[in-house]
Amino acid sequence: MRAGDEAADLVALPGAACAEAGGACPLAGWAAAAEGPAPAVSARFDDLGADGAPARLGIMGGTFDPIHIGHLACAEQAREAFGLDAVVFIPTGIPAFKRDRAVTDAADRLAMCRLAVLPNRHFDVSSLEIDRPGVTYAVDTVRALRAHYPANVELFFITGADSILSIARWRESAAIASLTRFIAVTRPGYAVTDAFKAELASLGDYDVSYLEVTALAISSSMLRQRVHDGFSLRYLTTLPVCDYIYRRGLYRGPGAAPFATACPQ
């Protein structure tokens, strides 16, 4: 699927998306740009580092089914703490570790991510993994990013500290470690023990920095369940994403009140 295939649907969204982005709707301009050549990584940051100056790019991967304020807050706090020039959200195509459950159509997940990041000029979304056929593996993505950006662009892979030990199960994890640094985010009260660090070190040579971020007890599965049960997502994701979920009828369970998934003005 090409990155701009869902452009018409995004531009058709009234009010909510444009209001959160600051009034005049930039989605129309994005849709027009989508008619040209597809970006190699992302429309905003394809040229990052082209001037030869040092730059830092954050990589935020995930299923984003749906994207929520926890994802956004984590990315923003990592950006500030590590001086990242940009953060690219990369929705997975066919997740390697979630093939045992249904995942919302990639076009919808991509569209929701675009709506969520739109107001932040430091964020963008890439369809790199969605466009790639077959199962999604992080090593393929990191290699593609490293091949695209010049050596003066440093890559930072943002992930949860509670997930970092599963790195040994990733395909060619040593290759990933050689191409990127890791930002392992923790919640307040989560202890990164010496035993934890020793176990990680035993898995390979990983450059990991730890970052405590604001505690937000939110998950995509929780949002899906709320919609299924007929409850609102207001303040759990952005207003444009909430509106998109409502208009597309995503996650709604049998008999759920259709207005419950909307975020009323």
Would you kindly provide a brief summary of this structure?
The chain is an alpha/beta fold and about 260 residues long.
Oligomer: single chain
Distance between the termini: 33 Å
Q: How would you sum up the global shape?
A: globular
Helix content: 25-40%
- Beta-strand segment tally: 6
Can you summarize the main beta sheet?
A: 6 strands, parallel
Biggest β-sheet: strands ordered side by side in the sheet:
3-2-1-4-5-6
| Beta content | 5-15%
Low-confidence stretches: 1-26, 28-34
Class of secondary structure makeup: alpha/beta
Structural overview:
The chain is an alpha/beta fold and about 260 residues long. The protein has eleven helices and six strands. Helix 5 runs antiparallel to helix 11 and helix 7 runs parallel beside helix 8. The longest helix has 14 residues. The relative contact order is 0.16.
Key features?
single chain; 265 residues; 14% strand
Could you give the topology of this structure?
Blueprint: H1 7-12, H2 16-20, H3 27-33, E1 55-62, H4 69-82, E2 86-91, H5 106-117, E3 123-125, H6 128-131, H7 138-148, E4 153-160, H8 173-179, E5 181-186, H9 194-203, E6 208-212, H10 220-229, H11 239-248
Parallel strand pairs: 1-2, 1-4, 2-3, 4-5, 5-6
Helix pairs in contact: 5-11, 7-8
